[in-house]
């Protein structure tokens, strides 16, 4: 019997299958539908996205909580870390400006804001100047403590900010923790870079901005200030001690203590357009309870109408203002002051009673804004002084004697000797006092404006000078005076000294005051 081929046999077997099996067989043989694959992000893209989330979260964390308020010496400061491409340290002294130190190279910058001076700690330095010797170490410790506190707080702020933003973006705790860990790693790297590049000598070469940009020209080379800090603090301690002692002495001087009924006169002169003078004068008026201000001239520099606005603060100084014209003050200046409230302009021997004292004065006959001397200037001044002396004698004859005469030039003031107890002048830009041969006391005031722009002409700046004169209200005679001297441009010195007339010194015999000599011929001036 012939054998059936295997291929035929298999075909027959397939034909005998049931229709359901055949259907199942063919269903399994049908091709599967195509599956769509979602493209996965590139690993570098995922890394860049995570870095962006970390940097943004860290920056937001620093903005919200990354600052520390800490005292540094007598100052209250706020220290902050900020992202930066250049690094360094920026010290903000509002509103004067800022100074930048090239202290380190790292992608973070240290900002130090000087908020205010603490009155308690500042007063402690004034009361105990010996503490200045340890001020440098105290400041170093304060800065170190504040920096450590800031580093810890910044770590917390950076990690918390990056973790919170990572959780908000990825919504997976593992990704959020990875963001926080990366933030901490980056902060540690920044700290290590800052530590490795730290430059302690950067304080010797600061960069100034704002109003502080003029600081190097005022305070000198920064390197010399740092290297000579020991000398500086010794001198500062001596200054604070001396000023404190002077104020203590003037307030408890046994020889003369002004009582509340004393008439107090503030004598100023030669302001020469220095706007700082008005604040100084207002402060002296308040501190000494001044009754009247006397200005013996040269308030202006060129006497132009454009300068008149400089005089506006006179109305708000808190005391009546008695004024005479100097050789830098014009008639335009005088007319502007005559229209101001509470200002008493003296000229042509005119007399006025202000705050219980009778004043008379004469404007300077010279007008030399270019500081030139005209021929015959001395004779002109002496003639002006003679006219003022004649007016003083006329007032005495009329029964209205003058207590204080005011004229700008000392050479003119000498002509009134014997006609008035006291004459006030200026012009010389330094203080002088003398009793002239006929008994009149001459008080020459220094420059209350520190000579104005002339302060920079000499080797050393001219000081700012003024004086407080104390008068007995009953006799209207000078009892004492305080000379006040402040350091000129760029200096911070202060001296206060009290002086007594010879007749008021303990144990001295009182000398008679000058009795005005009546004029030999009437001058024709109406009292």
From TrEMBL:
Domain of life, per lineage: Bacteria
Give the region (Disordered) as residue ranges.
Answer: 362-383, 497-527
Q: Which UniProt key words apply to this protein? A: Hydrolase, Membrane, Metal-binding, Transmembrane, Transmembrane helix
TM segments?
47-65, 150-170, 176-198
Calcineurin-like phosphoesterase domain ranges (all copies): 263-430
Listed GO CC annotations = membrane
Q: Which GO terms describe its molecular function?
A: metal ion binding; UDP-2,3-diacylglucosamine hydrolase activity
**GO terms (BP aspect):** lipid A biosynthetic process
Q: What protein is this chain from? A: Metallophosphoesterase
> Which organism is this entry from?
Streptomyces aquilus
Its organism's taxonomic lineage begins at:
Bacteria, Bacillati, Actinomycetota, Actinomycetes, Kitasatosporales
